[in-house]
Amino acid sequence: MSLLEYFRPETIEEALELLQQGVPLGGGTAITPRRREVSAVIDLQDLGLDQLESQDGFVLIGAGVKLQSIVDAEGILPEALRIACRQEAGWNLRNMATIAGTLMAGDGRSPLLTVMLAMDTQVLLEPGDKTISLVELFEQRERQAFRQLITTLKFPEPKALGYEQVARAPADRPVVCAAVARLSENDSKQRVRVALGGFGAKPILVDEAGSIVEQSGGVEAAAEAARQAYADAGDAWASGEYRSHAAGVLVRRLLTAGVD
Amino acid sequence: MRIQFTLNGVANEIDVPSDTTLLSALRSQLGLFGVKHGCETGECGACAVLLDGVPVNSCVMLAAQADGHEIETIETLGEHPQLGWRRTSGLHPIQQAFVEVGAIQCGYCTPAMVLAAHALLENEPDPSEAQVRDALSGVLCRCTGYLKPVQAVLRAAAVLRGEAVEPIVSPIPVDLIVEGDEAPEGEGPLPGGSELLTLTRVMPRIQIAPKTETWHAVGHPEPKVDAVKLVQGKPAFTADFEMRGMLIAKLLHSPVAHARIKRIDASKARALPGVAAVLTWKDIPRVVYSTAGQSDPIPGPLDSFSLDNKVRFVGDRVAFVAAESEAIAEKALELIEVEYEPLPAVLDPSEAMTEGAPQIHDEPEYVDFAESDASRNLSASVHIDIGDVEKGFAEADVIVEGTYYVPKVQQAHIEPHVVITYWDEDDRLVVRTSTQVPFHARRMLAPVLGLPAKRIRVIKPRIGGGFGGKQEVLIEDVAAHLTIATGRPVLFEYTRAEEFFASRSRHPMRFHMKTGLKRDGTITANQMDVLSDTGAYGCHALTVTGNTGHKAMAIYVGDGAYRESPNIRFHADIVYTNTPPSGAYRGYGVPQGFWAVERHMETIAQQLNLDPLAFRLKNALRAGELHPFSTAWSEGREPRPEIIKTCGLEECARQGASAIGWASKKENPDWHSVSGAPHLRRGIGVAMLMHGTAIPYLDMGGASIKINDDGSFNLLVGATDLGTGSDTILAQQAAEVLGVPVDDVIVYSSDTDMTPFDKGAYASSTTYISGGAVVGAARKVAEKIRARAARMLSKESGEKLSPEDIVLRDRCAWAPDGRSVSLTEVALNALHHQDQEQIMGVASFVSPVAPPPFATQFAEVTVDVETGQVRVERLVMAVDAGVIINPLTASGQVEGGMTQALGYAVCEEMRYDQTGRPREIDFRAYHIFSAHEMPELQTIFVETFEPSHPFGVKALAEIPTDGVAPAVGNAVMDACGASVTTAPMTPERVWRALKSDQ
């Protein structure tokens, strides 16, 4: 009765050839419950995509790195990223879920996606040795035609990174969360990226909030931009009015606290 | 496909279909039943195994992914310490610690927790509490509240490091009354702040009733009698049973909230290879019944059918399938063609009884009970007036009114509903099921299946949690119909999603409270009007909501003359809607009622500037007084007066207040603020509670005890241990009477062919009712032992001894002169040597009273006043549950109950969209607390001796679920002034309450 085909390629090339037949399988936490909806899975565990390294001011995380490895990377990865990873799931699932799998399957209420969006994470894809932004990945990932393999996530080492959330319970999924990253553009200029999550299919980048902080440092104006960004962010879990308010509070806090 | 891996240290090679999960491969192909199924999405963690040394959830992992890896399951750890002539290494120290500290309740998640702890301690021999909690964060437990599992891991770590650990000893009888506001030495605020939540002391604080001090078994922290089995992951649960040729059942659910089935065609499904049977409403007899597992006659309407030509909620039954595999059964469901004629749906209970509302139950077979009226969507109603309520309001100086709401919530036992049915060699139908009510199940299934009850045998194995959800004959009929149709064994197990959309839940309610008071705080009249939503079927509709008033509205009678003649009104309508049915859930209507009553009392205390504790105690019921509802209502049966014999409420308030530091915090502005965080405010709150102990003149439990050759005893009870430890505390009561260690009492529960009748595990009754039966049976056995021992000892000495001269102690029968015969000698004498007989006793117990346990619940919170987010920091509960039979299992009940109630307070809620589709179908959306986010928990027992029970016990199981939500709500109000009237207190609700105050 099983119609599912299982492949475990040993090289990237082999994996790319199989991509037309099925979907990549990271840890399996998202795909396994849906296994009867797919025709084949390509298990990536033997591809060696589990490296985690710093290089020229950038952090490179292999697509197959487990969430727990990120939590364990104390002193190597920013604290807020590790916290967001810990918020994502309990220990067992963190031992299984890969970072790329989480980026492909996660929704707007994912703390990790929100933080990685703020960090200006770049996604390295094969075939073609392409690099796209996380925003582009969020747009493309739902397309049937998206038959590409994430090999690496890359982000600049932030000068500062902060994450805050509001949830019903400490380990519950947030109804609102925010991440702010301060990134070095060059020696004299700093880039600020503000991301909001807790709603919808994907977290969003509040460009205006970042620009305001970069230009004037105006915390209240940036918070207002966050409020505007979530003005209509209402669903069964929280109203737009509430999310808008809470987004403003969290962004103000993160910017006021200096995000360290 | 062929895969190879190392399993528990041994190379393994198996063939599996490529879509097989590792969970399925381990259980079905390799027979490793320590790995449990709790969900299909990896959130509960019951299916955890170690993969290359770290825990992973095998339900979300393909078996193929394990190829080339090392897998360890619970079966690789310890084993029973005594296996005959073969030497064993015994339990692993982690398993031993779980047994010793009482970390095992239902035991369903225990193997997963033990494995996670094993993985942690392999890498970190000296973990912090935070590390332990993080290690357990991937395994949801609905029973324990995690406190004892954390203590077990810390204890095991110490043992593995070679350190000495404190023995788990019986509580020292101490007077806990303390002066002022200081906790007893060593129990003050803990070092390390909120990071350190777990007291290393395992035993709860306990103020012991004087009578109990000489007992050897009752009152002692005995390990659970099923703990060694459960900690090894033995195949003890329903789905762990294997049968040749067993079919897998699946259910087709309605996608619409209200419709007639115009056409249903199962021919394509039946033609699918591997399908053994497809049943629709056309194929089985149309027998109306109620699914509520209650005594005969069921106090509610008969409004359900196994299958009907109408569906009444999204998730209602449409068809049954039995097939050779789960995949084939699921495919068959897709092939069943159904044409629905949609009907207007009622989703809002406030619209259910309005003019022109669609009638949900229009079937001619509908059988009314009491005031039910299907034509008005009224499933039940209760109208109680005690005293002269209007006169009481007229005499009041102040009248305070308020409206409150509670949501629908789920029992969320980690083991889903699961049943196996088969014909035995005598063509009797065997129903092996995870049920709280095996005897009710047999009685209720008989007419539905067209079988006399005598041809049905219901076996209850271990239960992986129930909490009322399994007080329902919910799915047994599905498997049974399919076994009748096919002649083959059938396994039917709910998925987690089905648990959410096609199971039972706690009734959501809307309350209007109206209270009349004198200026000094004397209550002159108290009124509660309730609208309760039973969903599509009226199972437990009357009795759940009746208990809302019977308990929550009984606690405050007023003071002075009003105490002599209280004025109380309780009116409730319980209406049908096109949503999944409500039903029994631990607390049974009472947590709902106390949300309204205790939030309302706090509001009154604040408005009248009264001390919240003193105001409550001034008006609360006391020992020697009449239970005000006892003459008005008794679960739909004849009410009879009951006098409250014991009430430790005032002492509970004192002890709880002392433990939490009430006096130093409540009126202290400094304590309410958080240094460096102006947006955070601390608050402290309280709720006072009473519950009940069984249903008087109705609930009956039976027990039988027989002696064996070696002087041990078999105790057979129909009572159903669903993880609470009732088998253990029943064994303790038998052991106390028989003068033997608990280990000499072998408990078996329950099997309708083998064990005496028991009404089942509900209404907080087992310790009291079944315990009363056990004591009765043990006394009969003890009497026979004493008589025989007197003859034996008389013969030996020539001195004539009477049975009354003999004392049973230390496995011996003792004469006054110090001579004794062992119980082994007595047993051999009785069974083999002289005047042979089977020494045996059978007894039953039913009580004319339902003595209420009392409790005071305290909560400490921190509120973010900008976002409304509430963090519960600490929960302290002081309980008068009579004599505590086992401090470990009892405190486990309180910790677990408080944790469920914590979810009710802040995060648990089931909601539906405009078409009746559920928002929550998994543990991602429906958040239950996990180990690493828990507040500090503390349990205090204030013992009283209830005279209606031989060992002075009252109920304990449900009262811990009653008070956390209102205590947290009151603490939120104390913190920031926000008066939240709707549970749970989500950030948005608190924020809105804050805004409305401004």
Structure classification of chain B? alpha+beta
Q: Count of DSSP helices of chain B?
A: 25
**Helical percentage of chain B:** 25-40%
Overall pLDDT level of chain A: 94
Give the strand content of chain A.
Answer: 15-25%
Q: What's the N-to-C terminus distance of chain A?
A: 54 Å
| Oligomeric nature of the chains | heterodimer
Q: Helix proportion of residues of chain A, in percent?
A: 25-40%
DSSP helical segment count of chain A = 10
Rg calculated over all Cα atoms of chain A: 18 Å
Low-pLDDT residue intervals, each spanning 5 or more residues of chain B = 173-197
Largest sheet of chain A: 5 strands, antiparallel
The total count of strands of chain A amounts to: 12
Strand order of the largest sheet of chain A: 4-5-8-6-7
As a whole number of angstroms, the C-alpha radius of gyration of chain B is: 28 Å
Give the rounded overall mean pLDDT of chain B: 95
Q: Could you tell me the number of beta strands of chain B?
A: 32
Summarize this structure briefly.
Chain A contains 10 helices and 12 strands.
Produce the secondary structure layout:
The complex is a heterodimer of chains A (260) and B (998).
Chain A: E1 5-7, H1 12-18, E2 23-25, E3 40-43, E4 52-55, E5 58-62, H2 67-72, H3 79-88, H4 91-94, H5 99-105, H6 111-118, E6 122-126, E7 130-133, H7 134-140, E8 149-156, E9 160-166, E10 176-184, E11 190-197, E12 204-205, H8 207-215, H9 219-229, H10 240-256
Parallel strand pairs in A: 1-3, 2-3
Antiparallel strand pairs in A: 4-5, 5-8, 6-7, 6-8, 9-10, 10-11, 11-12
Helix pairs in contact in A: 3-6, 8-9, 9-10
Chain B: E1 2-7, E2 10-15, H1 22-29, E3 48-51, E4 54-57, E5 70-72, H2 93-101, H3 110-123, H4 129-135, H5 147-160, E6 205-207, H6 227-231, E7 247-253, E8 259-265, H7 267-271, E9 275-279, E10 310-311, E11 317-323, H8 326-335, E12 337-342, E13 378-386, H9 389-394, E14 398-406, E15 418-423, E16 429-433, H10 438-449, E17 456-459, H11 476-486, E18 490-493, H12 496-501, E19 509-517, E20 523-535, H13 541-552, H14 561-564, E21 568-576, H15 590-607, H16 612-619, H17 649-660, H18 662-665, H19 669-672, E22 680-690, E23 700-707, E24 713-717, H20 726-738, E25 745-748, H21 766-797, E26 807-809, E27 812-814, E28 820-822, H22 823-833, E29 840-846, E30 854-864, E31 870-880, H23 887-906, E32 936-942, H24 964-976, H25 987-997
Parallel strand pairs in B: 1-5, 6-32, 7-18, 16-17, 20-21, 24-25, 31-32
Antiparallel strand pairs in B: 1-2, 3-4, 3-5, 7-11, 8-10, 8-12, 9-11, 13-21, 14-19, 15-16, 15-18, 19-20, 22-30, 23-24, 23-29, 26-27, 27-28, 30-31
Helix pairs in contact in B: 2-5, 10-11, 13-15, 15-24, 20-21, 21-22, 23-24
